[in-house]
Amino acid sequence: MTAQPISASIAVLPFVNRSADPENEYFSDGITEEIINALTKIKGLKVTARTSAFAYKNKPADIREIGRQLGVANLLEGSVRKSGNKVRITSQLVNAEDGAHLWAHRFDRQLADIFELQDEISLLIADQIREHYGHFEVQDHLVQAPTQNIKAYDLYLKARYNHLKWDNEGITNAIQYYQDCIAIDPKFALPYFGISYCFAMRASFGGMPGLLDTAEHYLQRGFELDQHSDLGYFSQGTLLFWGRWDFKGGAAAYLKALAINPSNTEAEEGLAELYTAIGYFDLAEEHAQHILTLNPLSPNHHFTLANIRYLTGDYEAALAAAEAALQIAPNFTHAIGLKQLCLILLNRPKTLEAFLQSNRLVECPEECRTLYQLLHDQITKSDAARLIQTPKSERDIYLFTWDLFLQTHFGATASALDHLKAMTSRCIGQYVNFAHLPLLKPLHSAPVFQQLLQQVFAPNRLPPATEGDKTEPAGSRNLIDEAEIPALLAQLQQLMETEGAYQNADLSLRQLAERLNLTANKLSWLLNEHVGQNFNAYINAFRLKQFQRLALDPANSHLTLLGLAYESGFNSKTVFNAYFKKSTGMTPRAWVKKQQQA
């Protein structure tokens, strides 16, 4: 599973917890996620989503292989040590193609300064990528403090850490931490959005009555504090779509989340799932494919794609996508259940039975076998009746609607339709795709089924079937008046050739911009648009010429080539050798020898 890397791209790998207390892992995970979120705010920079980056947590892997799998040119590694009121963060930016270190730094700060530190690290990383790979605009700040209460923020990170486990225990713990966080700082918006999502999903999948109202309460309180949060609109989309089957409102909320943060793959996955439920399969596929470019190792995203193909009748493709999800997460029950259904519909009894026997997490194996036999005329109705008539109260709630499928293919049409009416009236999440479930086709001709379709999918409840033209105009906007450009280019040339600014080994884009009385964004644009080079290539070209002059000067024969490289402004042997060979096609020593022999 590999992707073609994009130059201006990065994956932030999980920062390692170096604290004495292993329980502080939530903090190192939280810092990693915050840096990911900060970098996603930069238009033109591809940032791998959290799920795929965290797939490598505690798993030793070759940097170059990670880069190939994620389709990125750069990787950020780091560690976090939290002790009392102090925090130390080390980070290093690595070229994923060759493993070369582009930048490294260690930060020692007070915990109270954590938001300023996240902002500083994110901006430094963005600057490094821009200097090496080309122009994109970077905001003055990428991280704004969401709260002034560090204890509340610490609780929020604990809540988020548990929330992202996506299991019942994790959600239960997350709800408690969110509530504790709100109690300490009632004006901190993010925990309201987090807890609203937790309650909305519990309500959708058969939770206690009243949970949707609770989710709505927390959501509205969050919006009173922050009306511009992509997490807030993602939570709203979840509540409206999954909780209330409000497709129009849910789509509008998800689209607002994506307008704020186009890299929010959870919101885009929610939108793809919504479009799937209402039969906008082309739009659903488009979004499912897009999120996989940002989050290629998310089992959920592969499942979303598998579900689209299952509901459109392409069971081979659905099975392949489900297998892709299981390759990443072998215990992912959504993909396990979908694989069972695909094998039933593909009429592969031996493969199905082997899977039921070998996987302890398969859903309802007896129901699955009976459904296969009913569908393929391998069982009498009297033999199937015992299982089908098992009282519902004695059975668990499952991800897939096995009871409904069995009733349908047993021929108990009235019971199946009563069951479907009851579940759709309660907006139970497992039934949201009922209009397209292939195993419900025998019900389609029933008037009750048609009435349900008209009620649930009435035109006034649906969003537009198109999203409009989302293509962006080619090229970048002019950041400098055309009349000023010649003078600025002349001034820049003077700084290089006359003043030798390139000889400063620590020279950055921002420092050079200050000497020109420009912003870093404007200088980056000027170099890339009017010189045709990124900052790194531009500066190193002067350093290379200076090295070549020094290396051929007999007065410097007593100095090493590496010493001359440092004197020319290069700050790394690796960078010098790589740039020299890329520019001349030979090593520095071979070049010098050739020139001396000429």
Keywords:
Rossmann fold, Arc Repressor Mutant, subunit A, 6-stranded mixed sheet, elongated
Structure characterization notes:
The chain has 598 residues and is an alpha/beta fold. Among the domains are: 6-133, ABC-type transport auxiliary lipoprotein component (Rossmann fold), CATH 3.40.50.10610; 363-456; 484-597, Homeodomain-like (Arc Repressor Mutant, subunit A), CATH 1.10.10.60. The protein is built from 28 helices and six strands. It has helices at 25-39, 50-53, 63-70, 114-133, 150-163, 168-184, 190-204, 211-225, 230-244, 247-260, 265-277, 281-294, 299-311, 315-328, 333-345, 349-358, 365-375, 381-388, 402-410, 413-425, 447-456, 485-497, 509-515, 520-531, 535-551, 561-567, 573-584, 588-597; strands at residues 6-12, 16-17, 46-47, 72-83, 86-95, 101-110. Strands 1, 2, 3, 4, 5 and 6 form a six-stranded mixed beta sheet that branches. Strand 5 and strand 6 form a beta hairpin. Helix 1 (25-39) crosses helix 4 (114-133) and helix 9 (230-244) packs antiparallel against helix 10 (247-260). The radius of gyration is 29 Å and the shape is elongated. The protein starts with 5 loop residues before the first strand and ends with a helix. Keywords: DNA-binding, Repeat, TPR repeat, Transcription, Transcription regulation. TPR repeats lie at residues 299-332.
